[in-house]
Write a structure and sequence with these properties.
With 193 residues, the chain is α/β, with parallel strands linked by helices. The protein is built from seven helices and six strands. It is elongated and about 60 Å long. The structure holds S-adenosylmethionine. It holds the Pfam family MTS.
Length: 193
């Protein structure tokens, strides 16, 4: 079976063709076979390709950390327009930062002075720091990623103008295909569990 046929056996024809194009554009040839096999096992495309566009940024994606969603990106772009109109330096505290996508995106604004972003997942913190490095040319604010548990009120000793969070929103009992959560991304890069 060709790679396209393998993908068509799992996805609609147009999605299969688009995903094969992305795999072939973004990965070295030596990884195409494995990538198609992984995708046919419904591994999220972003974990296979290793990244997801988020506004002007490229956000690295790794298993164990939520893939940034399209609706989060849209919300964040709208929020940036509001913050950009604000006078004076804006200091942001973000809970539940995950990959760091929201905090880093806000940190690209010229009037944002500082972003402190917290998470309890050490894998997420490591990835958010990689994402800071990857996007450093576009980041204007001072950014710090720190360990912090929202439920234990672990607040850094800092003042903030703006408090942000995209907290966990899927009840544990729904966290399976049977519970209504998609098993894999759809045909838009950005859809995720
Ligand atoms: C829905 S994800 C959001 C990730 C990212 N902000 C985004 O929008 O893609 C929720 C994040 O909250 C973190 N989290 C869960 N419980 C937490 C807690 N008690 N304190 C801080 N972070 C928590 C998880 O590790 C996860 O990274």
């Amino acid at each position: 079976m060709s790679w396209l046929q393998v993908l068509k056996s799992r996805f609609p024809a147009s999605q299969a063709a688009q995903e094969l194009r992305w795999i072939q554009q973004e990965l070295p040839k030596s990884q195409w076979q494995t990538a198609v096999e992984q995708r046919a096992r419904l591994v999220p495309l972003q974990y296979i390709l290793g990244s997801q566009p988020f506004g002007d940024l490229t956000i690295k994606c790794k298993p164990g950390v939520l893939i940034p969603r399209n609706d989060t990106e849209e919300w964040c772009e709208a929020l940036k327009q509001v913050i950009a109109k604000s006078n004076g330096p804006v200091d942001v505290l973000e809970y539940c930062t995950g990959s760091g996508c929201i905090g880093l995106s806000i940190a690209t604004l010229a009037n944002v002075r500082k972003v402190i972003a917290l998470d309890i997942n050490k894998q997420a913190l490591a990835l958010s720091k990689e994402n800071l490095q990857l996007n450093s040319a576009k980041i204007k604010a001072k950014v710090e990623f720190q360990y912090g548990d929202l439920l234990k009120h672990q607040l850094p000793q800092t003042s903030a103008t703006l408090l942000l969070s995209n907290p966990p929103y899927i009840p544990r009992e729904h966290f399976s295909p049977a519970g209504g959560v998609e098993e894999s991304p759809g045909n838009v890069r950005g859809f995720c569990l």
